[in-house]
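Here is one chain, start to finish.
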Amino acid sequence: MKKKSKKKINITVYLILRFLVIISMVAQSMRGNWNNVFLCILTLILFTLPTIAQKTLKIKLPTTLEIIIYLFIYCAEILGEIQNFYGIFQHWDTMLHTLNGFLCAAIGFSLIDILNRTEKFHINLTPVFVALVSFCFSMTIGVLWEFGEFAVDRYLQKDMQKDRIVNTISSVSLNSKEKNTPVVIKNIEKTKLYDKNNQLIITIENGYLDIGIIDTMKDLFVNFIGAVIFSILGFLYIKDRDEYQFLERFIPILKKLKEE
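Its structure:
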């Protein structure tokens, strides 16, 4: 595909998504849902990050990667949060976190690969170490994201770490003898929550409400899977760049290297 054709596709996707976000923002403002209006504004700001990154860091994002970034932002903020795809589709969040692990590994890989191919950098890492750094970079971003979700839930009373109902508890806090032996409660049918005035607030049917730990571990695990997949492909790419040339669609490159 020619360069002009790729750029045209990139701009077309960007403009379509931007238009859809603006339509959503207008609709949410007419309903008086200002939290969603803020999410739309945030999405529009996030759409500018690829362009800012390319100009400030003097890198070139492949068309495929840039389009995926735009789609990822739209799927996470507009479809996920505003249209509640996280609630409607069971694995929506899982899909996005897996993709995030893959993309972050690609970015981490490109940082080291650029240094390896730069004459000013006197240390040349082996393919194994490049893949390892790529993996660690992706996992670090994943952990920081989960920190952010926890902070938002803790201090702004949101629910980014999606809670879920479980019917089994295993906890040493329930041990009446205060021993370090977990008490296991299975087949929980319902949980009743009371306030300090002993007034029943709500009854949770079919179990106990887990407050985000399962969601966090699941997110980190699928991020791990995405990071491992790209790290392996990145290792193979360094060993044989011609054979795995398709991977260049996901790897940012330094503009000077591109010109060479």
